[in-house]
Amino acid sequence: MMIVERAPTDTELVALLDAAFAELVARYGPEGRSGVHADARFLVAVIDRVAVGCGAVQPGDGATGELKRMYVDPRHRGRGVARSLLKALEELAVELGYDRMRLATGVRQPEAVALYESSGYERTALYGRYVDQPLTLCYAKSLVM
User: Which one of 19, 72, 117, 139 has the largest count of C-beta atoms within 10 Å of its C-beta?
Assistant: First the structure.
């Protein structure tokens, strides 16, 4: 597996993002997707020259980056792709000068919750547009050891 940076307009990345949104609609209904900052940096996990997962780091508040659009194609789940992608995104966040990462996920995504909690993320108060969304869970992790 390789993890590479891709432009937001990359066709394989766009297909993964569309699949991620379809899965969210199936779990939560058509509530819309949160925006991604224009300065977000996307990484894509590639296996046998096929994009199978993605995620992004976008500017948060000050020294905090925000994890966005984390997704792995269901056919490739359970193989460590998400964990490797998350690690690469955290490394990118450090390169970008962030010492903390935050994210929002949902109560109907137990796989994501398990990944984040087992990767050292701790529950935090809801932030930003998520404050009044009862199905949302927010997490943060210090990237400085």
Answer: 72
Give the dihedral sign, CA 90/93/98/103. Answer: negative
Angle CA 83–95–47, to nearest 5: 35
Structure tokens at 14: 């766009």
Q: What does the pLDDT look like over 37-95, one tens digit per residue?
A: 889 999 999 999 999 999 999 998 899 999 999 999 999 999 999 999 999 999 999 99
φ, ψ at 54 (rounded to 5°): -155, 165
136, with CB counted inside 10 A (0-12, 13-18, 19+), is middle
Tokens (6 digits) for 28 = 């939560």
d(CA 108, CA 112): 9
pTM over 0.90: yes
Q: Environment class of residue 76 by beta-carbon count within 10 Å: exposed (0-12), middle (13-18) or buried (19+)?
A: middle
Residue 47, H or E segment: strand 41-47
> Which two tokens mark 41?
């940096």
